[in-house]
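Deliverable D5.2: sample structural annotation.
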Amino acid sequence: MTLSDSGMATTLLIAAAWPFWAGRFLPFLDLPQHLALSAVIARYSDAATNFGRFYLLNSHVTPYVGFYASMHLLTQSGLGVVTAGRLLLTLYAIGLPLGAAYLLTTLGRDWRWAVFTLPLIYHANLFWGFAGFLLSLPLFLVALALACRTLSATRPTWPDSCRLAGVVTLVSLFHAQTYALLGACVLVLFAAHWHGWRWAARCAAPFALSVLLFVPWAGRSFIVAPASAATTSDATIGGRPTRSLTRYEPVPVALSAIPERLVGAYTDGSDYRIAAALLVLFLVAVVSGRNPRPQGLRAALVERRGEALSVLLVASYVVTPIELAGQWYVSPRHLIFAALLAPAWIARPAAGSRRVIVPLVAVVALWASVNATGKVRAFQDQVGPFADVLDRMQPGKRVMSLIFDRGDHGPVRYWPFLHWGCYYQVEKGGDVSFSFAGVPSTATAAAHAMPVRYRAGMAPPRPNEWRPWEFRWDTMGAAYDYFLIRGQPAGDATRLADHADLLVRNREWELWQRRGGDQ
């Protein structure tokens, strides 16, 4: 690495993390839910929050425990929940290109081609707010690099095996889907490097701990839960039956949706333009960096492990259901893995005429960072005076969140306000009308990964969060202290004045407080 390479890399990494510090609120759909559960864990014993009244903490080891354990360590060190979340997202942003550089080096490629992964930091899954999944991505790249290194040795060394065991176990603790895809990639690597059954036994040992941790959760989620889900219903959303679903998409539909599912989060389409520029530079790099094909199938597979794995990951996107065991948006998450491995197709180093490609991609990366920063800042205007609304609310209460304007007309189109009421829990404690702690345990695999659940009988009655107009005062209203509204109310929300007092009406926000004793 030259001094200029080091300086460029440092600048790009700082720029990559900057959007996560550009505003108080981040436009990531599920992030408020994850921050709220982190607040429950961090302040569970604080009587002022009332968390102990509403919730219980789970002791099971699950594929989400990595994120929540990391948040807990940071909050116990003195950081606030929101700041801790920003710090983990910063580590994700920095770790993604660094992990890609390490993997490329292990695959015999030029680490500088990892610059292609920088614009991919702001992929669609980020704006869906899949917190644990995001943090699993750099770990996946490092684990894959260590697997390549370990399996390419006739006799793997003890230090390499220990490092691989540690990182693979971390992957299993951050996200189940990432761990499953890592397993599929590792099977391909076993086939490419096969040296007999004794070798296979030695190489399999680093994966044993993660398998032992993962299998009990998988059994509860995909065997026990689906069997019981068909006969249960979730009374908190009006008694509608909840079933364990597995649903596939037609291949043409899945292929046509690739651009949207890889990027496509901005309403102005700017991320498509960034992706197009990145794709053009990538194709130039691939065409100019081709190597002669190795002789023999196995030699070709070893030499082109990265390319083979990227093809596997694209194929897995096509054959995987979009909904599995009630967990939605499964297959689209595979696309980012394939994109992160794409630089492995550039066989030759960034030298000669190819060297100019690196700074050009760096410009695209800076463009992506500046663009994401602008979206976060614009989102603050869309949020408006919500901080003033929070200031009017007392701690430890229960809040009905009725979001009629989910925010998809702003800079980001993935409904960033849907779970916005969870910021009350982050700041003040208490409970909200929809919490991930209340995902029906028999309905989705994700439910079995949550570290927090409601105490028996404490889950509040509520409408489906996507249908706030189904709120009914006579069956739901008395359970709540506050009613937080964004957008134009409909249904019983238009008649809150009959039962509650208006505390705040400011731009898109309304805050009502139930009158004492009013049933």
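Annotation notes: The chain has 21 helices and twelve strands. The longest strand covers residues 500-506.
The annotation will be released with the project's public dataset once the embargo ends.
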